[in-house]
Amino acid sequence: MTLSRPMNNALRIRPITSPVMAIATLFCLMPLCDHASAWSRVGAIEVTDHAGKPCFGLPKKERKRIGETPQVFGVEVYDAITPPLRQQWSFEFAYPASLPLPPGACVLYGEVPANAVARQTSMPLKPGRLYDVSMSATRTGATQFYSARFCLKANADGSLHAIQVRYDDALGWSPAVCLP
């Protein structure tokens, strides 16, 4: 005599009724999604000062991640304080043109590279204001683009100095380092 189980008892699938189980199931399935935005990242831009103007490059860590001389396809700078955010300057290259960015090189605010198209002519940057820069450049892995925040500080002699602004847990994105 052979014992057999009915097919409906072989595997029971129950609907998820608990919110905790629904959330746990969602997190377990997320790695299976190719297009999950949780896997994308924003790379860092290094903002340096060049005679009172900000200059945008890529730090050694990003260069190492890329593994070759990065190519810049466009840059945008926005006023990051006053909604609606106003574009201060931007340019882009028509595909397949780009700008190679060798070590130590950076894109100086307001200077549109040869063969690039200015989308917004440069507006004067004001001391003590927070600005956001994003760069479209060679991507690797999950990197979608590169970004940083910066401001200008007025010196006692009237000259300006560009300073990269880092996120502060207590102040958030604050241009306090650039206030007099």
Q: What this model shows, in words?
A:
It is a single chain. This protein is mainly β and about 180 residues long. It has one domain (about 40-180). About 10% of the residues lie in helices and about 35% in strands. It contains two helices and eleven strands, in the order H-E-E-E-H-E-E-E-E-E-E-E-E. It has helices at about 20-30, 60-65; strands spanning about 40-45, 45-50, 55, 70-80, 85-95, 100, 105-110, 115-120, 130-135, 145-155, 160-165. Strands 1, 4, 5, 6, 8, 9, 10 and 11 form an eight-stranded mixed beta sheet that branches. It has a three-stranded antiparallel beta sheet with strand order 2-3-7, with no helix packed on it. The chain is globular, with a radius of gyration of 24 Å. About 20% of the residues are buried. The model is unreliable at about 1-5, about 10-15 and about 20-35 (pLDDT under 50).
